[in-house]
Amino acid sequence: MKKKIAIIGAGVAGVSAALRLHKRGYQVTVYEKNSYIGGKMNQFKQDGYRWDTGPSVFTLPHLLVELYDLYGKKTEDYMRYEKQDHSCVYYFKDGTNLIFYTDIDKLTKEVKEKLGVDPKVVVDYLADCKEKYEVVGTMFLENPIHKVSMLPWDKVKKAIPFLFTGGIFKSLDALNKRDLKDPKLIKLFNRYATYNGSNPHEASSILSMIAHLDQTIGTFYPKGGMRRIVGGLYDLAQEQDIDFLLNQNVESCKRVGSQYEIKSNGDVQKFDKVVSAIDHLQFYKHIIDDQKLYQKYKKQERSASAFIFYWGMNQSYEELGLHNIFFSEDYKEEFRTLFKDLDIIMDPTVYINITSKCDPEDAPEGGENWFVMVNVPAGKVFTPEITARLRAAIITKLEKALKRPVEAAIASEKTWYPEKIAEDTGSYMGALYGASQNTKTAAITRHPNHSSKYKDLYFCGGTVHPGGGVPVSIQSAKIVDKLIANES
Ligand SMILES: Cc1cc2nc3c(=O)[nH]c(=O)nc-3n(C[C@H](O)[C@H](O)[C@H](O)COP(=O)(O)OP(=O)(O)OC[C@H]3O[C@@H](n4cnc5c(N)ncnc54)[C@H](O)[C@@H]3O)c2cc1C
User: 331 alpha carbon to ligand 1 midpoint, in Å?
Assistant: First the structure.
């Protein structure tokens, strides 16, 4: 008889884990509290517009292809994606704007023209990011680093000296100041710390490897929006004998004899193994009721959350691209306020994602679907007054930068904020990526993919090793599969 595995949570990590473990020969049941799968990677439609709710930047598509390959399927039968000509358009307060091309020649030309920076500076910096990714990143992202017996020692030996010479104890900001010098380039490459909700002035310079993924490997767009990433995987999972139990809020998970009893909606089922694909703090606090481990991991600082305005615009803005960033004047103060004062500044860095640039049907003709996001502290409460102030500050900033009306063009509107993100996805305090990476050792102290206390209990998803974000969450499911295969 097949061994039974329960997966709690049907976000992109839970669905990826289900596909891998089913293929490995387990009878898989996925519990999801919502009526839909996808967690943070959801979508909604309103007044003729479509929006992705959460993630918008898509890198490392080969991790998805691997899952389709596992079943001998063609990725394009489930989802299509295209490489973008540029990763982002950056707007600075002095009116400079910079198109960040993924082609190195176009990029260095743009940087030379707009900032007067020697192309060699950017070429050398990105080469360093690439080396970091290849020597440290892949070892770290592909392995259960907390399981000493499974470490690839040949790769670890190469990575350890590199960690010191490559500056693990230097902040990303310090590295960028040393290697880039130009204040605008520093700000721009500091931004990669926000890819896991962290502060570039505190987080390790090792995070510069993210620039390699975004710039050199490239930024991609999935046709139909980010939702297609998890939608395609779910379509594949539904063709298999995998049970998805929607509207099933897991209430408890108890070790009884050699099995686990999972209770949801009053019903109890037994399993040989359990994979938690939800926020590990919620798992410890509410589901397995281990207050000691909850308190231990709760001490780690949360990553940033976000306030998102979904604006249906009745005009189009040709000057904007798929991804756009409008920087704050004082980036350092913005992060200090976010992580130390647990507050927001009224000149925040604003990110706008517009999928109707690639999928015109995401907005009525002549309009655009704006996803307008600012980073805010996890757990921050937004009263109607604070929300109104933030909204007004963003509009003033955008109208000044774009030199044309914004507010008058908003024809449809909705918001998402920490409290609601927490409620909808089970994310502790609405943090986007679990714990922050604001210490130099954060990567190692992050929650492992297995439990050393509870036998046959595993963890995947954006709050545990190797980290937050869509590709890394998919990768965490692969590590769990590796761990289970190793222990079977
Ligand atoms: C606004 C925003 C912007 C982001 N931008 C990016 C980006 O541009 N690029 C990027 O790579 N990443 C981005 N991220 C992060 C990315 O979305 C996450 O890292 C990733 O989606 C996490 O997937 P997951 O499966 O681990 O968790 P989730 O998506 O949170 O899924 C967890 C699932 O578990 C379910 N669940 C919770 N508790 C229970 C329970 N008790 N019983 C049953 N089910 C339960 C939830 O309902 C949910 O469906 C962003 C996130 C947000 C919110």
Answer: 27
d(Cα 288, Cα 294) in Å, to the nearest integer? 10
Query: What is the tens place of the pLDDT at every residue in 13-23?
Result: 999 999 999 99
Q: How far is the CA of 5 from the centre of ligand 1 (A)?
A: 21
> What is the CA(106)–ligand 1 centre distance, in A?
34
Residue with tokens 């190793």: 486
pLDDT in tens, 334-375: 999 999 999 999 999 999 999 999 999 999 999 999 999 999
pLDDT of 257: 95
Mutate which of 16, 20, 36, 40 for ligand 1 pocket (most atoms within 8 A of beta carbon): 40
Check if 9 has its Cβ closer than 6 Å to any atom of ligand 1.
yes
Domains and CATH numbers, the chain: 4-41+226-299+438-487 (3.50.50.60), 83-222+302-424 (3.90.660)
Backbone angles phi, psi at 300, to 5 degrees: -70, 135
Name the residue at shortest CA distance from atom 38 of ligand 1.
426
Q: For residue 34, how far is its CA from the centre of ligand 1 (angstroms)?
A: 12
List the structure tokens of 200: 């570039």
- Check pocket membership of 464 for ligand 1, CB cut-off 6 A: no
> Ligand 1 pocket, 33 CB below 6 A?
yes
Q: Is the shortest distance between the CB of 12 and ligand 1 below 6 Å?
A: yes
For the stretch 228-280, pLDDT in tens is 999 999 999 999 999 999 999 999 999 999 999 999 999 999 999 999 999 99
Does ligand 1 lie within 6 Å of residue 426's CB atom? yes
Alpha carbon of residue 336 to chain centroid: 22
Residue 281 and residue 13 in contact, taking contact as beta carbons nearer than 8 Å: no
Cα–Cα distance between 205 and 331 in angstroms, integer? 17
- What pTM did the predictor assign? 0.97
